[in-house]
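Co-fold these.
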Amino acid sequence: EIVLTQSPGTLSLSPGERATLSCRASQSVSNNKLAWYQQKPGQAPRLLIYGASSRATGIPDRFSGSGSGTDFTLTISRLEPEDFAVYYCQQYINSPLTFGPGTSVDIK
Amino acid sequence: QEQLMESGGGVVQPGGSLRLSCVASGFRFGDFAMEWARQAPGKGLEWVALVRYNGDDKYYADSVKGRFTISRDNAKNTLYLQMNSLRGDDTALYYCMKTGNSGWFSDKWGQGTLVTVSS
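Predicted complex below.
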């Protein structure tokens, strides 16, 4: 099983600032089969990024994904008020699929 | 537009069974693998199971293997999760998800159905 570790656990930032979230895998995620999701309180998760760097339909270009192998990053270039949420990474290269524990982006 | 609607959640005693359903609309259900994930109260996401587009191949998290069964009826555009031998740590909001065109990421999620295992 591929274990995903996300850091930091909590990120306290102000609107307009840049957010950098990390996801590290216990073994290589081949073909960059790594996705990022956003979840707001009381809502289902929403797909942001797949294939490590491809934005899902309707996702603003302030969200970008990068990385390969075992180290991946989600960057939000300028935080908007609606971006304060929990972010999860997921590997989908093989079963069992696994999620990271999440990073909470809070308003400072 | 694509929609997923879960149902079947409720309160069940430890050791009991429950069957969740997820009705899909707005896309060609039989073309996509489908999944279940869950989220315990106040906790993170846990992937539960996946079934390929034709129902032939199924994959499970170790935590549910042997107790849960995923299945689908493509004629009814419906995904199922049969849950047996339920335990307290199965208490969670259960989400139904559609996979993407190019991999098993989840590009559409339902709103979830709550399962509570308690005596």
